[in-house]
Amino acid sequence: MQVSFGVLGPVTAWDGDGAPVDLRGPRHRAVLARLIVARSRVVPVDHLVDDLWADPPAGAVGAVRTFVAALRRRLEPRRAPREPARLLVTDGPGYALRAAGDTVDAWRFADTVAATTDALPRPTLDRLDAALGWWRGPGYAGLDQPWARAERARLDELRLTAVERRAEALLALGRATDAVPDLDAHVADHPWREDGWRLLALALYRAGRQADALAVLRRARERLRDQLGLDPGPRLRRLETDLLRQTDPEPTGPGRVWAEAAAAYERSVVPGARARLESTVGLLRSLAVTGPGGLEAARDQRVAAIDAAEQLGDPDLTARVIGGYDVPAIWTRADDPEQAARVVAAAERALAGLGPDAPETTRARLLATVAVESRGLPSTRGPDAARQAEAIARRLADPALLAQALNGVFMQTFHRAGLAAERDATGAELVELGTRHGLAPVEILGRLIRMQARGALADLTAADAHADAADRLAARHESPLTGVFTAWYRAMRVAAAGAPYPEAEAAYRTAAGRLAGCGMPGVERGLLPLALLCLRVWHDLPADFPDDTDWGPYAPWARPLVLLAADRRADAAAALRRTPPPPRDLLLEALWALTGRAAVALDHRAAMRRVRDALAPAAPEVAGAGSGMLTAGPVAVHLDRLTAALGEASD
Q1: With contact defined as beta carbons under 8 Å apart, do 41 and 96 qualify?
Q2: Is 6:136 a contact under the CB 8 Å cutoff?
Q3: Beta bridge pairs of residue 104
Q4: What is the pLDDT of residues 52-104, one digit of tens each?
Q5: Is the distance from CB of 203 to CB of 180 less than 8 angstroms?
Q6: Rounded distance, CA 380 to CA 364, Å?
Q7: Which of 297, 377, 445, 593 could, after both became Cys, cross-link 623 (CB 3.0–4.6 A)?
């Protein structure tokens, strides 16, 4: 049962069914609130005493321990008497709340606001609409201790920022009228927020209410002067000047450059020109690495651009449009398999349509596209295309082309288990290409590949270094999706380092919060339950999961173990017989390990032999760690279990 916590209003908790948890009295709620403020850090008992009472009574330490014991009974009602607590834990001199990041509304709210800093308007609006709806009243309502007041002030500031950022998104989407009511209430309650006044005036102006907009700016000047003794800042003054001139304010700095360049392009390049399609591909390539909204938009528009190019009947143009989308790919399951198949089919048609004089670069880019978009499939076409693209790129000595070809090679290095060393070599070459030629996305890709591969080879020190380097590059070059993979790697590392199950589970759940809504459904769907299942298998725990668990594409490999945990042995055996070989991707060894565990439990000798033979080449590796996302423990442990079972089981 996963408990969730609410502090955006009165302090409360809900069980896995959404029912309120009885937290007892105000002191119990204060203890829980203080631990939530600490965000998983340990709060010593003597600090809790000082934070709960201005003048602690005799026996205050014992009272705190009583409050904690009562909270534990409420938060984990099914915990056995001597079983260690998993949520409200004792750690050294105090206590900590080890809740997953997505289970505390204030933590989710802060993370959501931070994630919208550079996001596109549509996802920003959607996320902030949801996040602002989590508020049920003043933060930490009913608590008046200094630490509660400080945290309430911090959350209030975040909420005001979210309100203004939501208004900016509405304006960017052309919905000025919708922004006015909330902004009007916002400045009435918070007259010192100059950004609130500025956005309200701008919204009114864009809604066709110039006089009202100017009146708002006059009102802002009066309120600021009368209540705070301040003159309006430069942005408000500049806005008033622009509105008096009946000029909609334009962006400044990079925004102005973009707007002017886009306007010049619109004037100079006629609609329908082939140059527009090729330029679109360059834009989509940049858009794909900006974040979730950009990735989704780029994915959709990429197919539209290919369709438009094919309609023009120009194979060379179509080839350039397809091959020009050289966005680095690190995950081996397509986000949209149907769309990937359409891209491969279009690339094959373009290859067939190219004339004998077509540039080799164009042909290599098409082949690399086939290799990347054929990821995880059993056909030999993907590996063949990868080898051909690599050969051409090496012959031409083109760094960017070689990087694209090596991405295809990486995607096709999963035809059997135990190939982490080969992928590591590919990653090393990509890192070298990226650093030598200033290709930051290429170096990031190489670092992530090496992070995965060194993890599989149990070299966590090297994997850590590559994760850190990828994060530094991503921050410098505005590649936010990189952090999704490094966050999951660090969660996997907690598990791989042998942390207790509750600690590893909490790390995975926190990482899952980064993955939610990231625009990568091929990564997201089913990954958290799969990670927890692999963790349970490694810790020899039953696969107890709710019936409504969404296993996504991993259901065939999870089902036998889940049925065994439910004491449905006959159904589990039938499910095992239907379990297919895993797809050729980053989770190959992990899924084989799950099948092996089920085969041993069900005494299925043929399945045990099949798993043993498949996993044998990966004996020195860590099952699943090559994904950089999860692990089921050392492959050698699974092989030893299989060998022992085969030696003892009867036919």
Answers
A1: yes
A2: yes
A3: 5
A4: 898 888 888 999 899 988 988 888 888 887 788 888 888 888 999 888 888 89
A5: yes
A6: 17
A7: 593
CA separation for the pair 132, 126 (Å, rounded): 10
Cβ(199)–Cβ(164) below 8 Å = yes
- Strands 43-44 and 88-91 come out as unpaired
In this prediction, residue 372 carries a pLDDT of 96
d(CA 423, CA 627): 11
Phi, psi of 321 (to 5 degrees): -65, -40
Give dist(CA 492, CA 487) in Å, integer.
9
The token duo for 521 is 């459904």
- pLDDT band of residue 649 (cuts 50, 70, 90) is very low
Sign of CA dihedral 580, 586, 590, 592: positive
CA dihedral 351, 356, 362, 367 (to 10 degrees): 40
33, 276, 292: which is closest to 138 by C-alpha? 33
Largest Cα–Cα distance in the chain?
A: 92
Is 76 in contact with 85 (CB distance < 8 Å)?
Answer: yes
The token duo for 448 is: 């992530």
| DSSP three-state, residue 271 | coil
Dist. CA 508–CA 511, nearest whole Å: 5
Q: What are the phi and psi torsion angles at 626 (to 5°)? A: -65, -15
Rounded Cα–Cα distance for residues 238 and 247 (Å): 11
Whether residue 314 contacts residue 504, with contact meaning beta carbons closer than 8 Å, is answered with no
Q: Show the tokens assigned to 643.
A: 């060998």
Residue 257: half-sphere exposure toward Cβ, Cα within 13 Å: 2
The 10s digit of each residue's pLDDT in 146-192 is: 999 999 999 999 999 999 999 988 888 778 889 999 999 998 888 88
d(CA 256, CA 153): 35
Question: Distances from the Cα of 377 to the Cαs of 175, 525, 581, 628, in angstroms?
Answer: 44, 19, 12, 21
DSSP run (H or E) holding 133: none
Where is 225: in which H helix or E strand? none
Report the 10 Å Cβ neighbour count for 406.
Answer: 27
Instruction: Map tokens 């056909």 to a residue.
Output: 379
259, 90, 249, 284: which is closest to 168 by C-alpha? 249
Name the phi and psi angles at 292, rounded to 5: -55, -50
Instruction: List Cα–Cα distances, 353 to 276, 317, 488, 490, in angstroms.
Output: 22, 11, 42, 46
